[in-house]
């Protein structure tokens, strides 16, 4: 590896004031998209600081308090070093961090729609179910490019997810150019949870009903992928759902269908983009994990951060793509 590559300036990572905003978002409207999905429109003056061309394809961190503490709203604080600190969510028993998707972002109007899947046992879900005008949560939004992926250069998009991924997948479908081929396999409880998905693309949506089986326990999504009449040409698959389902589908795509992980530019490190050309690719994201919470995972991740950074460095020094490390670790 050349010196210039190995001595690349260390990329700025993390939630810095130059690449993030944080604040408290308050509910201004609420509606049920389906019986188990509540859309909350929230507002914050901080949203006006986002770049106009930010794009829609972006998750963010939201901070909730456990029931009984809803009047205590935590928002990441800016430290002297210009970094936002959200350690409170890891240190306090009643502050929790979760990831959500911007279903709609209107920067001039300072409005953000978030579609919350309501399930039996979640801090965020319970908060969203009882939220009313003025209810709030803390947020941290990064403007870093690593959270945005453009339209892949393939013949067809394959979008696979459960209800939690529908906000993202709906946004992807909504942005497809006219006639672009896409197949979506979406798992929900039953037909009451199907929702209209607008697109200019040539889209086929297959709804999968888990019926009485609990979310995360059904194998129907995995089976639907295996029995799909496979699209012609190259395919880019986006997969987001419970971790076990995502890991299984990733294994199938990679080992039995020959897909490769979609490379990108991450942590300032340019991956071997050309390697993707002409191939079918996958991009996977475990959105939740049975029996655990995001706060628990972030805590565990922080504890292992040192080891992870060493692995990233070793791979980068060898000219590899650090995201290969994450791709393996996510399902280890
Ligand atoms: C990048 C990203 C974007 C996301 N976008 C959205 C979004 O727009 N809308 C959305 O609703 N979710 C979204 N999620 C998923 C959401 O963050 C998780 O479902 C989260 O665990 C919900 O938090 P909670 O406090 O309600 O439940 P938690 O307190 O985290 O979990 C409590 C228990 O419920 C289980 N559980 C968690 N989620 C579900 C579920 N959906 N169904 C059934 N059981 C569950 C857990 O395994 C745990 O045992 C996203 C996740 C990621 C990583």
Widest β-sheet, arrangement of strands: 6-3-9-1-2-8-7
Oligomeric state as shown: single chain
Q: How far is the N terminus from the C terminus?
A: 28 Å
Rg measurement, Å: 20 Å
Q: What share of residues is helical?
A: 10-25%
**SSE-based structural type:** alpha/beta
Strand content: 25-35%
What's the order of the H and E elements?
A: HEEEEEHEEEHEEHEEHEHEEEEHHH
Q: Mean pLDDT, as a whole number?
A: 87
Bound molecules: flavin-adenine dinucleotide
* Main sheet characteristics: 7 strands, antiparallel
Number of helices: 9
**What is the strand tally?**
17
Low-confidence stretches: 1-12, 265-272
Shape: globular
Write the layout of secondary structure elements.
Elements: H1 3-6, E1 20-34, E2 37-43, E3 59-65, E4 77-78, E5 84-85, H2 88-91, E6 95-101, E7 104-106, E8 111-117, H3 123-130, E9 136-142, E10 156-162, H4 166-174, E11 181-188, E12 202-209, H5 220-226, E13 235-242, H6 243-257, E14 260-261, E15 265-266, E16 269-270, E17 281-288, H7 294-303, H8 305-317, H9 323-329
Parallel strand pairs: 10-11, 10-13, 11-12, 13-17, 14-17
Antiparallel strand pairs: 1-2, 1-9, 2-8, 3-6, 3-9, 4-5, 7-8, 15-16
Helix pairs in contact: 5-6
Bound molecules: flavin-adenine dinucleotide.
Flavin-adenine dinucleotide is lined by residues 59, 98-101, 115-117, 119, 121-125, 164, 167, 215-216, 285, 287-294.
